[in-house]
């Protein structure tokens, strides 16, 4: 499958076998690409399993039944925690309301969509305990089990960990989140740019369309124009006039309000409302009232000495998680300088700018990216491109939005901070300035994506998605895992990335010991 257009490269297409046709000889083909540090996409993996449903309410009922059998009182059946992708803070929500939004969508009074990600449900450490049938289904669907099987994978170093010792948490883990094909620019359902210390496999098990009405599309376009205008003003000092408004402050002054409870409408005729209780990601409640039109709460509005602009899309006080609201809320013109010059001359067509979507680029240029059957847009960078990627982010970091929806002020590590998501405009500029581009493709239901350790990647949901992921450690990438462990160790003590502890050196020692024991046992029986 063609996933990039790098000149002079023979690595633009990714190995994409069909799980239904895999033979033992395909393992060597897999290893050829895997040793090069290339991602691999395996199609139709769910068709090799037993056919268990991954519908969200089927999973919910399965968890409830297990808890009822255990007579568990510590598990709250109705209340779950989710992450609001607009401000990256936690909210408490009823599980049925969450899944209603998963299937139909929630929108605020200005028709701005609410993007939620279910947080740690069921808990990653208890996935196979809470969902035993789904856990078995997932293991059954894993391709190339020599590498991926968490207990019996002969080439998975993590499988050699002694049973009597506490094992690092490698999954499986579910990722359940809303999604839209439109690139919002603010509050998109994304996994921000990061890299993992280990290898990983990610299977898309279920999707649901959240379609927009014509009125919602129209309202969304207007709001995106306001965001675009604010970005041009804050990043480049360019004021974009508009026929319908007289001043910049009128156009962009989407008043930010604190929230404690926000009411969101479904798109159903009944216009039902979901009560969402806000909480900071530190677990503290956030005072305030409501958020609308892509705006979140703040401790205090940040003054702007340049103009009357009010802050848009601000975050709750504190918060361990960080906002990622990107520089170009919409795709800006082909070149930054052209955008500035045209804006000064009054030549920017804001409607044209705001109608561009990130996913349209993928669908026009890459195979397998049709939105009717695709669920998640992936960008995976090559390891050798990491220095240039970091240099680009270091140069342009102030063009990205962050906590309080303000331009990023400080970067500790461009990738490990997990605060950036590169929209289409930034990916274009990255290629123009540094000559690098990621593998870009759309993952469909039933496709397994293999991500090599050390490859930075980001994901945006084009639909509501349920993904299940598992970490593993392959012999080909153990050196990279050790290098990354040392890199993570050098981060500040309170850096969020330091929470990820793989103990790969211990894992390697245990794997060698286990191999020696197996060889000795084999020789003794000969």
Automatic annotation (TrEMBL):
Residues 246-291 are annotated as: Disordered. Residues 277-286 have a biased composition (Polar residues). One of its GO terms (cellular component) is histone deacetylase complex. Gene3D superfamilies: Cupin. It holds the Pfam family JmjC. One of its GO terms (biological process) is regulation of transcription by RNA polymerase II. Its main location: nucleus. One of its GO terms (molecular function) is metal ion binding. The keyword Metal-binding applies. SMART domains: JmjC. InterPro entries: JmjC_dom, LSDs-like. Residues 254-268 have a biased composition (Basic residues). Residues 150-489 form the JmjC domain. Keywords: Metal-binding, Nucleus. It comes from the Eukaryota. Belongs to the JARID1 histone demethylase family. This is JmjC domain-containing protein.
């Amino acid at each position: 499958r063609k996933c990039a257009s790098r000149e002079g490269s023979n690595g633009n297409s990714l190995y994409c076998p069909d799980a239904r046709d895999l033979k033992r000889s395909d393992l060597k083909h897999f290893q050829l690409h895997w040793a090069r540090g290339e991602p691999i996409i395996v199609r139709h993996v769910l068709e090799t399993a037993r056919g268990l449903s991954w519908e969200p309410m089927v999973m919910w009922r399965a968890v409830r039944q297990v808890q009822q059998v255990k007579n568990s009182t510590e598990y709250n059946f109705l209340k779950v925690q989710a992450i609001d992708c607009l401000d990256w803070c936690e909210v408490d929500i009823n599980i049925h309301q969450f899944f209603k939004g998963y299937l139909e969508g929630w929108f605020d009074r200005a028709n701005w969509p609410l993007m939620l990600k279910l947080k740690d449900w069921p808990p990653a450490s208890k996935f196979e305990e809470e969902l035993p049938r789904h856990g078995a289904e997932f293991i059954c669907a894993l391709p190339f089990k020599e590498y991926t099987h968490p207990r019996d994978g002969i080439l998975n170093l993590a499988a050699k960990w002694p049973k009597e010792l506490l094992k690092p948490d490698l999954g499986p883990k579910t990722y359940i989140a809303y999604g839209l094909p439109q690139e919002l620019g603010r509050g998109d359902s994304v996994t921000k740019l990061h890299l993992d210390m280990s290898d990983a496999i990610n299977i898309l098990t279920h999707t649901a369309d959240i379609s927009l009405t014509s009125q919602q599309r129209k309202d969304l376009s207007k709001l995106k124009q306001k965001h675009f205008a604010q970005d041009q003003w804050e990043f480049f000092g360019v004021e974009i006039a508009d026929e319908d408004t007289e001043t910049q402050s009128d156009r962009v002054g989407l008043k930010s309000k604190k929230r404690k409870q926000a009411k969101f409408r479904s798109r159903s005729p009944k216009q039902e409302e979901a009560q969402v209780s806000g909480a900071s990601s530190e677990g503290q409640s956030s005072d305030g009232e409501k958020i609308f039109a892509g705006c979140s709460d703040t401790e205090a509005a940040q003054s702007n000495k340049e103009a009357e602009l009010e802050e848009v899309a601000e975050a709750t006080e504190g918060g361990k998680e960080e906002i990622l609201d990107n520089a170009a809320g919409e795709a800006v013109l082909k070149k930054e300088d052209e955008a500035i010059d045209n804006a000064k001359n009054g030549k920017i067509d804001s409607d044209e700018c705001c109608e561009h979507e990130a996913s349209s680029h993928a669908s026009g240029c890459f195979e397998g990216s049709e939105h009717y059957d695709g669920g998640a847009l992936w960008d995976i960078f090559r390891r050798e491109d990491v220095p240039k990627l970091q240099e680009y982010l270091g140069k342009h970091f102030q063009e990205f939005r962050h906590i309080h929806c303000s331009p990023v002020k400080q970067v500790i590590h461009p990738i490990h901070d997990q605060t950036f998501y590169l929209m289409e405009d930034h990916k274009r500029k990255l290629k123009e300035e540094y000559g690098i581009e990621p593998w870009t493709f759309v993952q469909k239901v039933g496709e397994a994506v293999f991500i090599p350790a050390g490859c930075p990647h980001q994901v945006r949901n084009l639909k509501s998605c349920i993904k299940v992921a598992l970490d593993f450690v392959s012999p080909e990438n153990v050196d990279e895992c050790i290098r990354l462990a040392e890199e993570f160790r050098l981060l500040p003590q309170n850096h969020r990335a330091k929470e990820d502890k793989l103990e790969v050196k211990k894992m390697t020692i245990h794997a060698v010991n286990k191999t020696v024991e197996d060889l000795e046992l084999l020789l003794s029986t000969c």
